[in-house]
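Researcher: Next sequence.
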Amino acid sequence: MSKLYDRAYFDRWYRSGGIGGAARLARKVALAVATAEYHLERPLRSVLDIGCGEGAWRAALLKLRPKVQYLGFDSSDYAIARHGRARNLHHARFADFQHLRPCAPVDLLVCSDVLHYLEARELDLGLPALAELCGGVAFIEVFTRSDGAVGDEHEFKLRSAVFYRNRLRALGLHPLGSHCWLSPALVAHATALELPG
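Model: Next structure:
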């Protein structure tokens, strides 16, 4: 990958009004937390954020659930060096999750704005971890060639929704809508109309 996820990158896309802001992130986090807690039928305890960047989800999560255990992984040397110790962020590429299992399955797994930048080989190597490390709900925000998403288009992979849907379903994840996926462990407890046909 030739992209450099340095301070300038995060300044442009995450701090200068690039692809959202604090209010938009807070809404996504609230959605993910509420969806996970609805299906778990208890408060959120643990979150794993794969492709966490600077760990922006952490602060928003702690505002809602101050006792939540947050663990993040990213390939950005800058983000880990700058925020790793304070925000519990660690270095790993997505493909490292072919073997990496850093924790027990979590209540909420986050993989936001990551998959559409990965080569197919790296994607397929790390993807099984999303299902294996998710014990509740996964928030997997991914955009396709038909979405017309606004943001960083450098190395963006123009794939169909079917490409992602088929891979995630093959792992046992079930779509809930709004980028949320139910873990294989909870599928049997869902009612018929909680899952699409």
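Model: The longest helix spans residues 22-40. The helical segments are 7-15, 22-40, 56-64, 77-87, 120-126, 128-132, 161-170, 184-187.
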